[in-house]
Amino acid sequence: WVDVDLAPNGKLEACKAGELxxxxxxxxxxxxxxxxxxxxxxxxxxxxxxxxxxxxxxKAWELNxxxxxxxxxxxxxxxxxxxxxxxIHEFRRSWNVRPAPLSKNSPYHAERINTYSxxxxxxxxxxxxxxxxxxxxxxYFNKNILPNLDNNIxxxxxxxxxxALCKHLFNLDNLKITELEIPTGNPLLLSLDKxxxxxxxxxxxxxxxxxxLVF
Length: 215
Known about the structure:
The chain is α/β, with parallel strands linked by helices. The protein is 35% helix and 10% strand. A three-stranded parallel sheet has the order 2-1-3. Strands 4-5 form a two-stranded antiparallel sheet.
């Protein structure tokens, strides 16, 4: 949950995402993102490309990336040295395995970050599995996004919060979700039927698409 800026390549991907969305010529009515700068900036770059003001953006901490506990602040090579490649793969891909909690004394802990000062302390995690992420993303989706799905909606979030949402929408089981990868900066266009059930799904940049495990 530590705030890091969008990398230069991420900015390029966001601008390209905006161009791909612009080609659809959709009227987009609602915009949702997380509390984290990299998702907010991604959405802002897309909105700039679409020539849409960002005054309608809703920010929700429930759409934040998964909290990686004691792995927070480590890069992949550092993690592999400490835990080994097999364990890191388990942490990153499993459904219900959590890393050790992040110490509340750590400067990386969300309780010590001003961005999260309005979140009840009992809601702030010290570590999460994908299941934990799912259990905050889906109630938020059902309450705040699902009722508006008669309209076009744009969600800018993170790899694991999007995986959680896809698990729900694609009806993937706990094993299948471990296979789902989400590429960065590639818009995923979802169409739903009148019952708000998934009808079709496709990446706008086919050259960078990943297997959606459905259809």
